[in-house]
């Protein structure tokens, strides 16, 4: 079991901003996950991987692919209080889910 969080590298977010966006995405997807999967993921150490893409359209394409696979997803839009404009799409979480299911969606992406 794992969760993949995909963040936009093209926005030039600082480390703290990136960390906050990744946390928002992770928690939001977790909240939309069924209880059985939550328990399996938590019991297995809550494995996460942070990946990168360039551009909003890449995030939405991944979200569509993940949703078609039946995986929980969460798209994060920033409030715009600090480094990016209001409504900017910054990150996507996929899962938690089985490793192989997550890898079918995100396996060709690079680590952040």
Q: What structural class results from the helix and strand content?
A: alpha+beta
Kindly provide the radius of gyration, computed on alpha-carbon positions and rounded to a whole number of angstroms: 13 Å
Q: Tell how many strands the DSSP assignment holds.
A: 5
Going by CATH, the architecture would be 3-Layer(aba) Sandwich
| Sheet having the most strands | 5 strands, mixed
Q: Indicate the percent of residues in helices.
A: 40-55%
The CATH superfamily appears as Bit1
Description:
The chain has 112 residues and is an alpha+beta fold. The protein has a single domain, classed as Bit1, CATH 3.40.1490. Helices cover 42% and strands 26% of the residues. It contains four helices and five strands; from the N terminus they run βααβαββαβ. The chain has helices at residues 15-31, 35-43, 56-68, 99-106, and strands at residues 2-8, 48-53, 73-77, 89-97, 110-111. Strands 3-4-1-2-5 form a five-stranded mixed sheet, with helices on both faces. The longest helix is centred in the N-terminal third of the chain and has 17 residues, at 15-31. It is globular, with a radius of gyration of 13 Å. The mean pLDDT is 97. Its EC number is 3.1.1.29. Belongs to the PTH2 family. It catalyses: an N-acyl-L-alpha-aminoacyl-tRNA + H2O = an N-acyl-L-amino acid + a tRNA + H(+). It comes from Haloferax marinisediminis. This is Peptidyl-tRNA hydrolase.
Quick rundown:
This protein has helices at residues 15-31, 35-43, 56-68, 99-106, and strands at 2-8, 48-53, 73-77, 89-97, 110-111. By secondary structure, it is an alpha+beta fold.
